[in-house]
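Supplementary Note 2. Why include the ligand at all?

Several targets in our set were suspected to adopt different conformations when bound, so apo predictions alone were not considered sufficient. For every target with a known small-molecule partner we therefore ran a joint prediction. The input for pyridoxal-5'-phosphate is given below.
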Amino acid sequence: MDYFNYKDNELYAEEIKVRDLVEQYGSPLYVYSKATLERHLRAFEDALVSKKHLVCYAVKANSSLAILNIIANFGCGFDVVSKGELMRVLAAGGSASKVIYSGVGKREDEIEFALQQKIKCLNIESESELYKVSEVAKRLGVVAPVAIRVNPNVDAKTHPSISTGLKKNKFGIAFEDSLRLYQIIKDDPNLEATGIDCHIGSQMTSGGPIIEATDKLIELYHQLEGIGVKVDHIDIGGGLGVTYNDETPPSPYEYLAAVLERLKDIDVSVYCEPGRAMVANAGILLTKVLYLKSNSERNFCIVDGSMSDLIRPALYGSWMNIVPAIKRGADDALEGSDSNGNKLYDVVGPICESDDFLGKDRNLNVREGDVLAVRGAGAYGSTMSSNYNSRPLCAEILVEGDKAFVIRDRQREEDLWENERIITKIEEQFS
Ligand SMILES: *Cc1c(COP(=O)(O)O)cnc(C)c1O
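The joint prediction is reproduced in token form.
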């Protein structure tokens, strides 16, 4: 459920017409609903009230400072995968004491910064990384809190590009090797094992895989007890899916209830790392129809948004719902439309790539100049955007009731080459 709804055939973000937002702030435009985000935050917190817990929002899904600030104020923690993300969390008012740090390739300076900030836990993804963290901790004179990110070899039953818990994936440490690594941690005065972690994939639409993974983590928990290691948390990762089309993922409550049931007799905190489920449906991308054109095979709806703004369709072939800002009736349709007033369009962007599309084979009743909304764009939208084709990054708006706030200015063209230099005399560079 979200707060992007039609009233009298006009799409609203909470209490503001989305067309008015485009009028005022331009297009393409990311728009977020604060009420929707808070609804999702509450859903995760409520689902876990019966046990000690920490919801660590996965920053890579949407790292806007305003959004991180709302999440920090709600009391949630964060899962980061780079120094940049950790610095964003701190800049947004988040506390390092609620940050966990994941990722297969943490650089030494990143590990050092994280330990200096006294983050909650580093999730370790290789034996070499473990030794690196120990070395840095020793140099700083601190004890590094660590968890092993276990790769439980569980099939998340999701798109191969976003599956992470199988042996063929680069993530985590094989279940069979984990106990040995915990023994190494136990024997190292610079390290302390505080948790067990996993993250098996994204956009999971059933609860089965996470239960399977939880059972593996519990098995390891008992093995650790056997070697005298007592961890304080079990982290089941993120990955809960959302509805883009006709998927029917469980609610956070349904998803987590089975996990809590498994963990009820174990004295640990439960951590989770939701990204997509927290923000996807709290955001839309608004884009204006520039041109309509047809050939003997297809109709194209050419919009000003593109794969540089929202790459999921081009990158993963993701289906995202595209809806008009005003719903036109069948009596207000272009020539050649079907009885409902629709034509079948490929919705494409201006970028010079054949894969630059936002949606294919969409029934739409649109005119040039109309505004379209791509729904479910709050996660892996803005964070994956680029300047390809020298397109400035979109402005971003947060709506709260009848108020709109600019949370990121539209990038200016001049900003595109801010850090570049022209080399007039090549010899000077080498002299
Ligand atoms: C991406 C990621 C998440 C979040 O995944 P979602 O599917 O967006 O919930 C959580 N943990 C880690 C380690 C990740 O890399």
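The pocket of pyridoxal-5'-phosphate is lined by residues 58, 60-61, 79, 81, 102, 199, 202, 237-240, 273-277 (CB under 6 Å). The longest helix spans residues 208-226. Comparable summaries for the other entries are listed in the accompanying table.
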